[in-house]
């Protein structure tokens, strides 16, 4: 019997999933940090099937759910938000939020995102060189966007940047994660109270006014935790994807040309390919089986954990020719970077608009952009659940 591999697994290349992960096709048992075994599913087609299968639960309170650490377990079990629910309860809560994340709303936000990107790029171009693309562009853009959607004052961004960074750190202790979680929850408790007194047209105001105290409405802790979840997911993933995407484009001459000269369809294809190639969710989509699920000649038993790393599925050679290479002209729109099935990322369309706008704007505004550090000296977020680069020194 072959030795059971341990999870999480270490990358050997900053842009590639761990080699061991890619060898677990389509599925293989791995050992979690707790010592318990779970299924690692890295095959693209099997991931799509399982992510749509209601026999898998996202509820971390169920026995057998696969955690990365004690801190991860404590954080997930204390969170009361739609992302950790199943079935009708999950669907009902997504429906309450859906109007803020439609294709139409995302398209209506494009002009504002373009204007904000232009402002940030002007400030970057007029500032000192070298500059850090993360702090000057990649992080501010999605943070301002999600703050506008939720009605969160951008002036408070340092508090939630620091809190979220601790929460998604795989190496943080339970005490550190708990402290960051409590600080963030206290902030949103106060924000929800403020929105009840003086609502706006933002999402937190709608939840505070229409749900709290209403017949069949959401309890207060769920409104607070939902706002927290949307804030964290809405800026952290997109910020890391912007920085990593620009880094990939800078690695080879000519890659920026598609975004500088291509039409909207070409920019969309190129963005999809970067999403496929990079897939910044670093901890795998995780579930637990609530019923037995046959997979070929094997069976995922009820109570067994399942880890579905989309970065591995997006490199499946049976789906993508030369999957380990960047091909900005390929049709990769069915990538799994945003997940799949009932729990797919609710903010996908807004994220896509931001990425398409910013990659094109960078390519056009800074045609001479280049790294201002040796690639070997860049520090990557190997210890965080959302993968990225710590800083990206650039000049032009």
Structure commentary:
- This protein has 396 residues and is an alpha+beta fold.
- The protein has one domain: Cytochrome p450, CATH 1.10.630.
- It contains 16 helices and 11 strands.
- It has helices at residues 19-23, 44-51, 70-78, 87-98, 103-108, 110-126, 133-138, 140-150, 157-167, 174-197, 203-210, 220-251, 255-261, 264-278, 310-313, 348-365; strands at 5-6, 27-31, 37-41, 56-57, 131-132, 285-289, 293-295, 298-300, 305-308, 370-371, 393-395.
- It has a 6-stranded mixed beta sheet. It has a 3-stranded antiparallel beta sheet with strand order 5-11-10.
List keywords for this structure.
single chain, six-stranded mixed sheet, three-stranded antiparallel sheet, 396 residues, Cytochrome p450, alpha+beta, 11 strands
**Pattern of helices and strands:** EHEEHEHHHHEHHHHHHHHEEEEHHEE
Strand order of the largest sheet: 1-2-3-9-6-4
**Content of β-strand:** 5-15%
* Cα radius of gyration in angstroms: 21 Å
Q: Specify the overall morphology.
A: globular
Give a brief description.
The protein has 396 residues and is α+β, with helices and mostly antiparallel strands. It has 16 helices and eleven strands. 49% of the residues lie in helices and 9% in strands.
List the helices and strands and how they pair.
Layout (H helix, E strand, L loop, with lengths): L4 E2 L12 H5 L3 E5 L5 E5 L2 H8 L4 E2 L12 H9 L8 H12 L4 H6 L1 H17 L4 E2 H6 L1 H11 L6 H11 L6 H24 L5 H8 L9 H32 L3 H7 L2 H15 L6 E5 L3 E3 L2 E3 L4 E4 L1 H4 L34 H18 L4 E2 L21 E3 L1
Parallel strand pairs: 1-2, 3-9
Antiparallel strand pairs: 2-3, 4-6, 5-11, 6-9, 7-8, 10-11
Helix pairs in contact: 3-10, 6-16, 8-12, 9-10, 10-11, 10-12, 12-14, 12-16, 13-16, 14-16
